[in-house]
Structure formats: structure tokens, C-alpha cells
Amino acid sequence: MGKVVINSYEDFEKLVGQQIGISDYVELTQERINLFADATLDHQWIHVDPERAKVESPFHSTIAHGYLTLSLLPHLWNQIIEVNNLKMMINYGMDKMKFGQPVLTGQSIRLIAKLQTLTNLRGVAKAEIKFAIEIKDQPKKALEGVAIFLYYFN
């Protein structure tokens, strides 16, 4: 499935209720996890100490921060959709977000997105995107929720 191209509010309207796309997989390496720990000052051993995690963690591995998984949403979203003719786009919020299962170091994740609703707010497109972040070869999702974006078209 190729990238969906949106040029107007009307293009968005045609997608309501449909799956928009699926991103490529991104691997969550220990290096990426460590960089995220440095950026957020969250150096909990379950994320950054592989030797201790092998022994003390119920997962026998370090795991990615839940917020690292969430923070990859814009990157994964941009693999699925290209929105043109914009003045700007704003992250408006998250609803019903739930972490289903930790992502072990070395696992790969991808995004599946569906346009749940679209509302015209005086010329601003409010898009509610139902999303799931899947872990490769795992039945449970890492993260599910609804991302809300405001698109200001030219």
C-alpha cells in the first residue's frame, strides 16, 4: 500500500472510516532506548541496564520506554500519509491511549492507522486517527489509541 496523498479537506472526507495505511517497521535498539533515556532523564534500569534486566526483569531483557514507542508515532504516520497545501498541522491530543505490551529491546514496531472521524472546525480539519502500534510477530499491540490532529489548509 502506497502513501496516501491529501491535498484538501475533501480528500480527507473520502477516507473517513477507512484504514489509511500501514507503516514500515522500526527497530527499537538499545542505542535508541539509551538516547531516549538521555533526552527524557528517565534512566530506570529496566530500560538502560541490559545485564541487570537479564537477571531481574520478568522480560529477561531491557524494554523500550512506553513514551519512546508513542514518540515514534509522527515518524510512522509520515510514512503512511502526505498532507499537502498546509499552513500548519498541530498535535491536538490523545484519547483512549493504552499500552498493551512492552516492546523488548531489538523488537520492531509499525503503525496501523484508520481515519475514525473528521470534523470541519471553521475551515480547520480535526482528524481523529485510531491507531495501533504493533510489535512484529506478537499478537498483542504495544500501544493503541486515538491521535487528534488539526490540519490548517491553505
UniProtKB/TrEMBL annotation:
CDD domains: NodN. Pfam families: MaoC_dehydratas. Residues 12-124 form the MaoC-like domain. Gene3D superfamilies: Hotdog Thioesterase (3.10.129.10). SUPFAM superfamilies: Thioesterase/thiol ester dehydrase-isomerase. It comes from the Bacteria. InterPro entries: HotDog_dom_sf (IPR029069), MaoC-like_dom (IPR002539), NodN-like (IPR039375). PANTHER family: MAOC-LIKE DEHYDRATASE DOMAIN-CONTAINING PROTEIN. This is MaoC-like domain-containing protein. It comes from Parabacteroides merdae CL03T12C32.
